[in-house]
Amino acid sequence: MKPLQLKLILIMMLFAFASSLLAYTGFSMFSGIKFYEKNIHLALEARSLLENLSDQKISDILIKNLQEIRAEITPEKRQSSFSDIIQAYTSGNRSLLKRRIQIFLENDRVYVNNFLKEIEYLEKRLYFYSVALFASIFLILLGMAFYINSQIFIPIKNTTLRMNDFLNGKYSYSFDTPEDDEMGELQSTFNLMAQEVLRNMEELKSLDAAKSDFLNIASHELRTPMTSIKGSLGLISEGVMGKIPDDILNLICIAETETDRLIRLINDILDMAKIDAKKLPLKQEWSSLDDIIDKTASSLQGLAQSFNVQIKKGNSFSFLVFCDADRIQQVITNLVSNAIKFSPSGGTVDILVEAKENEAIKIMVRDHGKGMTPQEKSILFQKFRQISSPDNPLVKGTGLGLAIAKALIEEHDGKIDVTTKPGEGSTFFFTLPKWQPEYDNTRMAA
Amino acid sequence: MKILLAEDDLNIAAIAKITLEKIGHHHVTVVSDGKIAFNTILNNSFDLILLDGMMPSMDGAAVLKQLRQNPQFKTPVIFLSAKSQESDIKIVLDLGAIGYIQKPFEPRTLCDQIEGLLKKVA
To answer: Are A220 and B104 inside 8 Å of each other by CB?
Structure first.
């Protein structure tokens, strides 16, 4: 058996034994009082019978009553003198009966007095005894409460405190000298568990560091050669290296376009990997939505012109949003460039905003393209999935843009989605939870 | 202009050299190591120094720090830095670099970027 459990069971048994002993003593005192009370009652009954017995005729009922009393009274001396009375009564000798009754009643007064004294004594003892009994039960319970508190509840509380410290990142887990009981067992188990957790944490940390290293190296090692390739091709296609024949220039331009695409793909994959590895820290601050949208729109003017599409900024954008401006610009760029690519020639792409009090601010990008079927919509935000555009072979992406946009918006605690119908265009929108109207004074303060 | 380009990636250095010579008509000396860069700067006079952030033996910031120990040193310094080294940019600007050009750079805009930075301090 376990020490703490054993100790508790021993204490319980001791308590049970002591209380039954005390209860037995109390009960015997109580039954003593009952005994004397019964005798006094009998004496009174006998007296009332005997007082006018000498005037009564002999009757069977009376004899039976007398015999019943005789059977119950104590001690023996009294019993025998009571028998003498019954004998005198049945013999009909009235004078003898009167004398015997007189002697009996005189003696009985002494007995009754003694009984009363006994009762008084017992009652006093019982009173003190009860007080002592309750006091000692109270003390025993108090002691037990202290014992249980110090042996069980305080250690549990301490252990819980340590565990909470551990949860809060203070790894002061070790209990120096765990007691040799259940509580100690709990504490040493916790020690072992904490060591295991810490070991795992170290392992995860080193894995994490390895992942970071890999991402950094991959970024650098992939981007550097791409820079050289793109630079070389750029110098040739610009004509810096001298005039080159058109058919060769054509091939160089293809290589350049595809290099651009590869660079975008590398950037997107690395972004996605960083998002998956939670290595893309957001630099969130209050930023002007107007500025973000203006920057995005102007950077996409070239693309819009090449598709003969117009970017239209809708209603007012005088809002401050709490976000990583670069990342939100990346998202809007993605949505707007998609919208441009899927717009008919001569069409417009609208950028709109909807700000309702106590709701997240909603930024919308609407195109007037051919819209999407529910099936197309369902793969939209998945990695490496993209919707083909048979009308527009120039539409080429990495298939990661919307997946990255979704991850970035979710990192901002926002939502991204699209409403679309075939033939009616699509409206992509995302929400950002923290925003406020941009007053002039806040702008000056910022 | 006489330009010193310190860049350890030889291909990028070659592209930058061609760009600066063909488009900007500058005279470019290329070195690929921090220590060599430092010694070359000490023994020659340049109108502009382009320093890569990450180089073997001595990184760009260390080179600039040593150059600054000579109070006579007044040549403008521009850093070439990848986006992943954002934290280093502040360090080199504090060391007195006139600006930085983010890698990967576009050859056709490299000269304009340099001119823009030089105009700012002129």
So the answer is: no
Which H helix or E strand runs over A16?
Answer: helix A3-51
- Give per-residue pLDDT as tens, B108-117: 788 888 999 9
Q: Which phi and psi angles does A417 have, rounded to 5°?
A: -160, -175
Residues 6 or more apart in contact with residue A31 via CB below 8 angstroms: none
Three-state SS string over A355-367 comes to: CCCCCCEEEEEEC
Go through B12-39 and write b for each residue having 16 or more CB atoms within 10 A of its CB, e for each that does not. Answer: bbbbbbbbbebbbebebbbbbbbebbbe
Give the 3-state secondary structure of residue B19: helix
Q: Please give, rounded to a whole number of angstroms, the shortest distance from the CA of B15 to a CA of chain A.
A: 6
Indicate if the pLDDT at residue A138 is higher than 50.
yes
Q: In this complex, do A234 and B23 lie within 8 Å of one another by their Cβ atoms?
A: no
The model's pLDDT over B46-60, given as tens digits with 9 standing for 90+, comes to: 999 999 888 888 888
Does an H or E element contain A321, and which? strand A319-323
If DSSP codes are grouped into helix, strand and coil, which group holds residue A281?
A: coil
ipTM: 0.73
Chain A residue closest in CA terms to B103: A227
User: CA-to-CA distance for A360 and B110, rounded, in angstroms?
Assistant: 42
Structure tokens at A185: 């067992």
- Interchain CB distance below 8 Å, B108 and A216: no
| The token pair that represents A277 in the structure block | 């590895």
Size of interface A-B (CB pairs under 8 A): 48
pTM for this predicted structure: 0.52
